[in-house]
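Quick log. Single chain, no ligands specified.
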Amino acid sequence: MSKRGKRYKQLTEKVDRDKVYELDEGLQLMKDSSTCKFDESADVAVKLGVDPRKADQNIRGSVVLPKGSGKKFRVLVFAKGEKQKEAQDAGADAVGADELVEKIQGGWLEFDRVVATPDMMAVVGRLGKVLGPRGLMPNPKTGTVTFDVKQAVEQIQAGKVDFRVDKGAIIHVSIGKVSFSVEDLKENLSAVLDALVRMKPASSKGHYIKGLSVSSTMGPGIKTVHAI
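-> predicted structure:
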């Protein structure tokens, strides 16, 4: 433990907390600051010029990362009839209706993302206390409440990530893995920033994207300039 602590300290000393790095340099420094044996997530925190307490400025959405997320998600779909087959054909890991509700209420949680057709939301609503706190409740804003279950499942497997502004007006989202190249991370980050810019509320005044920092799962935050 002490060795790891020493190594972590050495790596964090490379990061000037007061400096705003060029994007390429910041991403490379993040990769170099990865201290774990596993492939850490490459995370970004974006400070927005919004007031999350105002309904129209409570930014929430999703984006498909062009270079993927580096993760394999287990997708559960609530649907019935022909939509069940559509979900299965698209590669969903679990598909069903009321029987899935009972299974989850019994403690089963072997899934990472949840999709539901609109007509199933009354059923899914019974799982609010289970799915809500885990951030798994389907939502139209993230494209997980839809009759197009094929597209929803395929986008998740292709690298779709969800984001939501927190109380501090910051968006936290993964843009891939530390093992990704700097160019791939930049392309994924650009897609996230593009999505955020498209969602800028008309009532947001002044600078919209106010700051950006990148970090690996266990690494230090590194302030960088943003591309937009």
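The two ends are 40 Å apart (CA to CA).
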